Amino acid sequence: MLPARTARRARVAALASLQFGLATTDAELDGAFRLVHDQYVARGYMRAQPGGRRTTLHHALPETRVFVARADGRVVATVSLVPDSILGMPCDALYPDEVQALRARGRRLAEVSSLAVADGATGGGIEVVRALVQLVAVYASRLARIDDLCITVNPRHARFYEALLRFVRFGPVRRYEAVNGAPAIGLRLDLATALASTPDAADVPFAAHLFTPAEIARVLPLLRRQERRLKRGHAHGPPPLASSAAAEV
């Protein structure tokens, strides 16, 4: 067994071999939706669909963004950012009163959704999720002008988000029909607080360097370039929803 420090260095080196950013091509979007489908099926969150993809109506909105990690051109991790809109957010189905209370306070909201990491992903699943959360949070705060990120997670994963990423609970455990009735809990991240402060490494080591000025300066130019590319029309959204089976949407 490798010493902890050596193993950590190996994971960091492996993570550096991945390419992170916005999905800017139809192929990347398709890879993301297929990965979500396969991982959700494997975990019992949905039944396998003929098209082999999982998308939502929110993915048809022009403001929705899909983030990916790629290894050798293949999507190995993904997460979506769904800004609040006339359709609401996916978590409105589970926490309508709680979400409406946030809106009433004037908070600008977006939901982190459709998270999936391929089995055996290079760099380790947790480290990959950490990198994706960094991109989503910086994009949401700096480019989309979002105040709060909302997310619904299985209760067994809640501690990861609370202790390591500083999310707080905004809703109780409930059964979520969108994932085959699995239990879910609502969490929220205040982006202004998260990006304005840097936790001490001894206190929150996982997030210690996630939102430092240097890290934000590192990832923001990439996100701005990719956002401009999207707005120029290099990628016009996900594969047509009309081609998906009803249960896929």
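The above is record 1. Record 2 follows with the same two-line structure.
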Amino acid sequence: MFGRKKIVFRCEACSARLIKRTSFLAHKFLRHDSYVCENPMCGATYTGHSELTGIASPSGVPTSHSELPPTPAYERAQALQAYRESLGDRQLDLIPVSGEPFFPHL
């Protein structure tokens, strides 16, 4: 397991693995990356960036705050939770949180 290396990108020219050589923060949510082909006969280099663009799940820390916008899936989950809370006991779930199907007694 330790001998295997995760391949993130492959060289466009020779399909060898690209190795990240340098990386620096351009700002709080943007990282600039430089990659080099591991094939010494090829030696192609590439640049790119990694960016955080949104919150997919909130932090569990009560005082946390983020400047990133929520993702659409996170906003839908919040809206669904608010809707269910507004219905209270008026809405029956066929599969409640416990996972067991709910069938009222007839």
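The radius of gyration is 23 Å.
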